[in-house]
Write a structure and sequence with these properties.
The chain is mainly β and 548 residues long. The protein is built from one helix and 40 strands.
């Protein structure tokens, strides 16, 4: 471990924290309503809960409106898909003959290309063999216009319980859901809700909510999510027998690797500490490395003192846990933050929050949607109109496209788009415009976003080229610069703090011996640059640290 006295770091440092300026007009950020008919008519009923294709083109949502498509006469919730490119809205909660469902359909999820729509439905006429009289999970193919039930036992046509809350893999092959049915897999005798995955290609149904050694969970499980491949499944559970040492007596977040059969608890601190309060609603990045979740625990990161739900991110590679629901100035929210979703590579996290201090001039006193850029350490509000007016009512349940450009959310606000006069809840898309590309950083650098002045600061990295050389630098900005033609995130005023030879496993640590009190209230960025033995350059994500 390399050590550096902080006066080297702090010499000449002056960080002035200012609110982020509004983007220039050229970034073309906009907010549009998508719960509309193909001719643009607004819905005559509430619209909610949605899915989003990877590129943000297709949005699935549920609606009680009867005027979004012709022939909607069932008087209940239906599932629709809106194409943002063509403006066309179609109904997906129909059977293979195009007949509308005779019961409510909600909670859609979309495959990456927008072709497959998974949803839950109480309808009994979407599948001619549906005789169980309760909720089932279906998948509708928008190309072939066929609908199939997926909440079934392997090679059987009947389930004896309700199945809801679907998630679908990028290719549409795997569908996760929760169910209280006891006949989906053999020996399901725990008499509670479990998590399952259905392989639509093979027709096999698999129990997910089990321990690594095959013990079925002894508590309620819900809110499943999938990574893009369908290999990793995240879920919440009250069970205390899924992993060893689960003694906190509260719901936790777990990830099941369907390939290896390993189940791990991820709602823990960076050193494996189990949460001292409940954690719920997990969401996975595309590759399954990052998990975001909400938790009321106060011991997952140092300095969590707001006694509210917060949003956290767990890096399953490094084991580090990070507080995400921070304001533009790095301060913790003064209200609860929930319902996180994450971009493909983990750079962007969206969430809803009651906090009024995450961005300047948040004066509406309602729940808003925020976007945290973990690379830049910034937070912005996205539940705003195209001309940046804050919503006049609440906004809920955001999702984000793979590249982080498109955010969809549901809102009761009536001032986000012109002509919103239906006095109903609608679904909106915030398009952040060109330039919201994902990072190409290949080395992982981690440090706490908030750190107490007067205490040692340790940075950790992984993924560096073994046997090469590393340089750790800091800067007052992440405005970008170059080293021998290679782009870095740090500004041109960067200063090298330490250097060394990369270990054989590509990891390393560096510690500031003591952070002087003079650093309190200041923020700096760190980045690791590395030169491989073949002479090529690599770099890490920039890490923003604010000293408290």
């Amino acid at each position: 471990m390399f050590r550096c006295p902080l006066p080297v770091l702090a010499a000449g440092l002056l960080v002035v924290l200012l609110p982020p300026a509004l983007p220039a007009a050229g970034t073309q950020q906009s907010t549009v309503r998508v719960s509309v008919a193909s001719d643009g008519r607004q819905g005559n009923g509430d619209s909610e809960s949605f899915g989003l294709s990877a590129d943000g083109r297709y949005v699935a949502f549920a609606s009680r409106a009867s005027n979004l498509v012709p022939g909607d006469t069932n008087g209940t919730w239906d599932v629709f898909v809106h194409d943002r490119l063509t403006g066309v809205t179609v109904r997906a909660s129909v059977n293979s003959a195009g007949v509308q469902g005779d019961g409510a359909s909600r909670r859609p999820a979309l495959s990456a290309n927008g072709r497959y729509v998974a949803f839950e439905s109480y309808a009994s006429n979407l599948d001619p063999r549906d005789t169980n009289g309760t909720y089932d999970v279906f998948v509708h193919d928008l190309v072939t216009r066929t609908t199939g039930r997926v909440s079934l036992p392997t090679r059987k046509n009947h389930s004896n319980g309700a199945s809801v809350y679907p998630a679908i893999s990028a290719d549409g092959r795997f569908v996760a859901f929760k169910s209280d049915a006891s006949n989906l897999v053999p020996n399901d005798n725990n008499q509670t809700v479990d998590i399952f995955v259905r392989d639509r290609f093979t027709g096999e149904t698999e129990l997910i909510s089990q321990s690594t050694d095959g013990r079925i969970g002894n508590g309620l499980c819900r809110e499943p999510g999938l990574d893009a491949s369908g290999r990793f499944v995240v879920f919440m559970s009250d069970a205390d027998n899924l992993v060893p040492g689960d003694t906190n007596g509260v719901p936790d977040i777990f990830v099941r690797d369907r390939q290896t059969g390993i189940t791990e608890r991820v709602s823990t601190g960076s050193h494996g500490e189990q949460a001292d309060d409940q954690s719920v609603y997990g969401s996975l990045s595309a590759g399954g490395r990052y998990v975001v979740f909400k938790s009321r625990a106060e011991n997952l990161v140092p300095g969590d003192a707001n006694r509210q739900y917060d949003v956290f991110l767990k890096d399953r590679l490094t084991g580090l846990t990070e507080l995400v629901s921070l304001g533009w100035d790095g301060r913790q929210g003064n209200g609860g933050s929930k319902r996180p979703a994450i971009s493909s590579n983990g750079r962007y996290v969206v969430f809803k929050s009651d906090a009024g201090n995450l961005v300047p001039q948040d004066t509406n006193g309602v729940t808003d949607i925020f976007l945290r850029d973990r690379r830049q350490g910034t937070t912005v509000r996205v539940s705003v109109s195209s001309d940046w007016h804050q919503g006049d009512d609440w906004s809920m349940r955001p999702l984000i496209s793979a590249d982080g450009r498109t955010i969809v959310f549901w809102s009761a606000a009536g001032n986000l788009v012109p002509g919103d006069t239906n006095r109903a809840e609608d679904v909106f898309v915030r398009d952040r415009g060109p330039g919201s590309e994902t990072t190409t950083d290949t080395i992982v650098l981690a440090a706490p976003p908030l750190h107490p002045a007067g205490q040692p600061l340790t940075l950790f990295w992984a993924g560096a080229p073994a046997g090469g050389d590393w340089w750790l630098a800091w800067s007052e900005s992440a405005a970008g610069s170059r080293i021998q033609g290679h782009p870095l995130d740090l500004g041109p005023d960067r200063t090298v703090l330490a250097s060394g030879r990369i270990r054989s496993d590509g990891t390393g640590t560096w510690q500031v011996g003591s952070v002087p009190a003079a650093m309190k209230g200041r923020r700096v960025w760190f980045e690791l640059a590395a030169q491989a033995r073949d002479g090529s350059w690599r770099d890490s994500n920039p890490v923003s640290v604010r000293f408290e």
